[in-house]
Amino acid sequence: xxxVQARIPAxxxxxxxIRLRGRGGPGRxxxxxxxxxxxxxxxxxxxxxxxxxxxxxxLPVTFAEAALGGDVDVPTLDxxxxxxxxxxxxxxxxxxxxxxxxxxxxxHTGDLIVTVDVQVPTQLTPEQRAAxxxxxxxxxxxxxxxxxx
Length: 149
Hints:
Elements: E1 17-20, E2 36-39, E3 49-51, E4 54-62, H1 63-68, E5 70-76, E6 79-86, E7 95-98, E8 112-119, H2 126-138
Parallel strand pairs: 4-8
Antiparallel strand pairs: 1-2, 3-4, 5-6, 7-8
């Protein structure tokens, strides 16, 4: 056994193999040394997922941000946050692409795919409850109108 140093390229994927030519065991009958194959294991990130060279992240937003629209800050892997502009009426589960903020490889850089998760509060203050009840009273169109027989 010996320690060998290897350059790991940017954007390496979990399970990807890297060949180190001539760094393996000695060849038979005095022949050249074989190749060393290094299998990379990439630890999962607590916030970001990966789809090819694209990063994925789930972004919790409030009902008001989704209904009214607005600018929200989105974390990136390399540090500074980016601003994502939500349109009024943004649906929970909608996906938004931030170009060039994904995995950077030797060939190109992927994108950041942001999935919006509208958070529904589980506990309301009396003022919040009154506001939601006023909203419900002002709602005239049923979201289930196409299901009615």
